[in-house]
Amino acid sequence: MPEKISVLLVDDHAVVRAGYKTYLSLCDSIGMIYEADRGESACQSYDRHHPDVVVLDISMPGIGGFESIRRLMQRDPRCKILVFSIHDEPIYASRALKAGAKGYIIKSSVPDTLITAVCTIAQGGIFIAPELAQRVAISMVNEQDKADSIKRLSPREFDIFRLLVNGLTPREIAERLCLSYKTVCNHSTAIKDKLEVKTMAEMTLLASRHGLIQSPYAGAAGPFEAR
After folding, report:
1. What's the predicted TM-score (pTM) here?
2. What are residue 104's DSSP bridge partners?
3. How far apart (Å, rounded) are the C-alpha atoms in residues 164 and 204?
4. Is 2 exposed, middle or buried (CB count within 10 Å of its CB: 0-12, 13-18, 19+)?
């Protein structure tokens, strides 16, 4: 009998994790399923269990999804990460892949997509949600342009940038990401410098051009989505 795939589920919503776990457990190819509620605990759990595939949300408190990918890849360059997110803009997927993820699917995908993606990545493949694949490929080609200033942002800066342009205040961001208010303000200044903008209006316009302004209804659909 082939060895079953072990999975680490990383999502800050317990109900969402329970839905994923229930669905994944129905697949004969999948064995142990571990859970973590944020990036910090995901890194600890990975060190303990060394799962075959990490299924990771990118919108989480604490260190956030992109920084979690970076840290997991630092721990183990062979780590196989599947991002499972509400965000269907190509820039999120391309950044996740560049950070080291082996796949990206969205939570509004049909449930079977999750199983297919996990199995594909466990076997050494790469999996992009079919509805995203072409747009991600085009996005990654376009990003070869060195003038694309968003590429200059670190994972933490990118998280703060997307929260700022979607209307959160520095204090709200500090609370959500478990950072100090001063740290968020310092990052905000660095972000403006890297993007070569002076006002929030300019920053928001740049974000809009890259599809980073989130609809207030985003994430309403999805088989196990609790948000």
Report:
1. 0.67
2. 83, 128
3. 8
4. exposed
* Whole-angstrom distance, CA of residue 63 vs CA of residue 77: 19
Regions in the chain scoring below 50 on pLDDT = 1, 144-147, 215-227
Rg of the chain on CA atoms, in Å: 17
Return the closest-CA partner of residue 60 out of 170, 201, 156. Answer: 156
In 76-199, which ranges are continuous DSSP H helix? Answer: 90-99, 112-122, 130-142, 155-165, 170-177, 181-195
d(CA 196, CA 190): 10
Give CA–CA dist 180/19, Å, rounded: 33
The predicted structure's pLDDT at residue 11:
95
Q: Helix H segments across the chain?
A: 14-25, 39-49, 64-75, 90-99, 112-122, 130-142, 155-165, 170-177, 181-195, 200-209
